[in-house]
Structure formats: C-alpha cells, structure tokens
Amino acid sequence: MNKKTLLIHGGKTTDEFTGAVTTPIYQTSTYEQDEIGELRQGYEYSRTANPTRTALESLITDLEHGTSGYAFGSGMAAISAVIMLLDKGDHILVNSDVYGGTYRALTKVFTRFGIEFDFINTTDVSKIKDSIKPETKMIFIETPSNPLLQITDIQAVSNLAKQHDLLTVIDNTFMTPYFQNPLDFGADIVVHSATKYLGGHSDVVSGLVVTANEDLGERIGFIQNSTGGILGPQDSYLLTRGIKTLGIRLEQINKNVKDIVQLLNNHDAVVKTIHPLNEDHVNRDIHLQQASGYPGIISFEVSDVEKAKEVIRHTKLFTLAESLGAVESLISVPSLMTHASIPAEIRHKEGIADGMIRLSVGIEDTEDLVADLEHALNQI
Ligand SMILES: *Cc1c(COP(=O)(O)O)cnc(C)c1O
To answer: Whose alpha carbon is nearest atom 6 of ligand 1?
Structure first.
C-alpha cells in the first residue's frame, strides 16, 4: 500500500464493535465484566487499554512499519517512557541540538534517577563511536534536528548500535512516517511528538512510540500501563483524524518550503538559510537516501536578535508561537523561545545564533506566504 492509502486504511480504525467507519470516542474509564476476570472484548480499565486509543495505536504501528504502538499524553511523556527502559547508571548519547524539552527532562529529571548522558554531534558517525562508554545503552537522535536541521545517518547509527548492543531511538517528529521510516533503516524505536505534523491542527498535545519488535513493545506497554502517561480517548480520536490528511498536508508544505527557501537564499537581509534543499547542507545526500521529502521547518539568520523581532512584527500570516507542524504557518526565535532552556554558551557553540528565526511552514497559499515574508524582510 502506498503512503496516502495507508494513512486512510492502515491500522484498525473502523469500529470493530459497531462497524462505524470512524472509531467512536469511547469516553469510559472501565468496562463491565461478565464474570470476575472475564472481559468481553479484552478491555478492563482505560489506563491499560481503550478502543479509541487502540485504533490510533494500530494505525501508527502500520505507518511506522513496527510491531507495537503506544499513545501518550504528550511527546515528552512518550520520550520519558522510552528513557524509562534504562536503569540507574546507564548512559545515553543524544544529538547536541536536541529538542529543548528533551534536554530539560534528561538534565533536570532523569539525572536525579542516575541516568547519564552526553550531548554530541551525531552528523559524524565516527564521533558517536568514540563517545560510546561501557555504560552506554542507548543512542537518541532527531534527524533532521531542531532548529539546525542537522542530518544523522540512521542506518549507520543503527549498525554501530547493534555492534555495541545499544538501542537506537529516533525522534521522527520532523519527517513523520509519511517521509521517513527509521525502523526500515535498523532503528529499534521511533518516538513522535504527535502534537506537531501528525495531529497537524494545533489542537491536541500527544506523543507516540513504535517499536521494531514485540519484546521492546511489551516493555514499553508495561511502562505505559505502570506509569500511566496515556493519551485520552478524545485526543486519540483527534489525532487519528489528523493523521488521515498528513500526506496532502505535507505535499503542500513541501511546495511552500521550496519557494520560501528560494526567497530567503536571495534576500539581502538574510545572513544564512538552513535547509536541506540547499546543496551545501551537510549530509544532504544522506537525508535524500533515508527520507522521501523535505522538512517543513526552515531556519534562517538575520543580523541580530532585534532585527529578528522586527521581522516577526511585520509578518501577518506567520503566527508568533512555539510549536510547529500545523496547518498554519508559525514563526519563532529559538534563542528566546523553544531553546531558551539551553544555556546561551552551549546554544552559540551549537550554532543557534541569537538572530535565528525558525519558520514552521503551513499549508496556506504559496504566493501569499512568500509575499508576506518578503514584505517583512524588506522592512529591516
Ligand atoms: C515538540 C517536540 C517534542 C515534545 O513533544 P510535546 O508533544 O510538546 O511534549 C519532542 N521532540 C520534538 C522534535 C519536538 O518538536
């Protein structure tokens, strides 16, 4: 089945009990038992399983080519569940410009439970190899990363990880299964902030985990049920609904991105444009091997943070907000917003300039977006 078809027909999203074409919102916490322990359809209590969530979990499992899928109340709850696979004293290697919330959870929460980590540049696989310690158990990577869109070779990392008996975890939020399937390249686990492209309408916060094998699936399922960070039935319904249009949304976003990158590349006020559409983007060839489309995120630099604020004040169609991946275009300044929790010194070393602007391109008309941004850039 091709991707656009799988988005509609993947998983079991027709209601198996009534035949309803869309799985209804099963707004229930518990289920009647015929005799003690005799469950009618396998459902006992909604932390453990709920049919609306099950429909979503079966869909994401198919979309990511995995064996088991789990839905959580946020991307961070999903990522936290994956980190909980580890024991005290275990060590994780993480890409250095990882999402700020992941950085915060590791450095402020999981560190108190004895989990150790190093943030490294993962674009060069030999650097990862040199950073592996006896305690290392997991490599956690976003590709492309946020906001620098750094590309890591998923196949090469997975091969290295297998040699050292490590788990490879890919945060696939940016590409989504429509454009990139990390499990096909040997990764063990995929995580998503489904709040972003999968949901796609800025109306639900959610996270997903998909595993490459049953054993890992059972372990994640056990953690999900034990620690309870599940997605509720209303949000599971909304997310399933959002996923159906993922393909056509991403096609329009890719169309818009091409013209916007071209504008930025040619505008005098722009110091630098960061996007894998550009020939000089590091590891561009690797991105094209492991993904079938481009990220909807574009980062670019203007001369300083004041100029960046000016641009934001003058755009009308790009809404000033955190988050990304929805139908409406968003604009933000990472150094002041999403990445403010990363110390300035580290931020600068990584290449997140104070005057950097991040766009999350939406599905509006291409010409309108280009004209709006061009107008704003002309004002500085
Ligand atoms: C937003 C985001 C997260 C966190 O997800 P929430 O749904 O906000 O908890 C994790 N990783 C990436 C790449 C993100 O963009």
So the answer is: 75
Beta carbon of 142 within 6 Å of any ligand 1 atom: yes
Q: Can you tell me the mean pLDDT for 76-93?
A: 98
Q: Is the CB of residue 195 below 6 angstroms from any atom belonging to ligand 1?
A: yes
Which tens digit of pLDDT belongs to each residue from 205-214? 999 999 999 9
Which residue numbers are catalytic? Answer: 47, 99, 171, 196
Domain 247-378: top CATH class: alpha beta
Between CA 210 and CA 212 the distance in angstroms is 7
Between the alpha carbon of residue 144 and those of residues 208, 253, 274, the distances in Å are 18, 16, 11
- Could you read off the pLDDT of 324-365 as tens digits, one per residue? 999 999 999 998 988 887 788 888 888 899 999 999 999 999
Residues 6 or more apart from 64 whose CB is under 8 A from it? 172, 177, 181, 182, 183, 190, 210
For ligand 1, what atom is nearest to the CA of residue 142? 13
CATH architecture of 3-244: 3-Layer(aba) Sandwich (3.40)
At 374, the amino acid letter reads E
Question: What's the one-letter identity of residue 74?
Answer: S
Q: Which one of 173, 190, 208 would you pick to mutate in the ligand 1 pocket, going by the greatest count of ligand atoms within 8 A of its CB? A: 173
**C-alpha distances in Å from residue 197, one per residue of 7, 74, 176:** 13, 13, 7
pLDDT digits (tens, 9 = 90+) for 9-37: 999 999 988 999 999 999 999 999 999 98
Delimit the domains of the chain by residue range: 3-244, 247-378
Query: Looking at ligand 1, which residue's alpha carbon is closest to its atom 5?
Result: 75
